[in-house]
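Incident log, structure service

09:12 report received: a user says their structure output differs between two submissions of the same chain.
09:20 pulled the input from the user's history:
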Amino acid sequence: MLYWFFVKGFGPIARRRLGPSAKGVNNIPRKGGGIIAANHLAVIDDALIPLTCPRMVHFMGKAEYFEGKGIKGKFKKWWFTSVGVFPVDRSGGSKSLGALEHAREILEEGHLFGIHIEGTRSPDGRLYKGHTGVARLAFETGCPIIPTAIIGSRELQKPGTVIPSKGTTQVIYGRPIPVTRNPNATHDDLRELTDRVTREIQVMSGQEYVDEYAQKVKERLAAQQQ
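09:34 re-ran on a clean worker, output below:
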């Protein structure tokens, strides 16, 4: 795996352009499994966390990233696999659960797993309702959740923009939320823990909260434009 090669090799270039600073790095467990649960404002968010976290972080990536054809498709699959990203089918059901199972294995092996609690990028910069997958993983493994706020990435990379502008960003790692292993956690347990993590992120990021799933909002906006 070439994770650290890319972080160390291309990190200086990314730092000069994205200007990331980190706060609360001491809240990241030095060893053992842990869940980095963050908001999601721009594509570059998945670079800002590795640039500021002292430990390797595994992420999910859209299945489409791994299904391309030809040289370009093979290169993208190699790239994402090399930096610790594994595919998730976002159509839901058993396909999505398979990705969560892989995430659970990563945590049980003592690694860090990163997840964007909203499930997709915010359509307007506000913080949207969190999905319960992060809570499910925590209850199944007993691993702590580290609420993480990413600030400034949307300003550098507006929706639809590929190359980000030059500027500054910040990643704030909050105090870990300890979770007692409970494979039989109820839906109410999952919702309560998810909402707690979301509130922690909101306090750190200063975002306005919307009690609705971001994907639903995106679908509604897309339908209005047709």
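09:41 both user submissions now match this output. Likely a transient worker issue. Closing.
09:42 reviewer note: The chain has one domain: 2-224. The helical segments are 3-18, 45-52, 70-82, 93-108, 133-141, 153-156, 187-205, 214-225.
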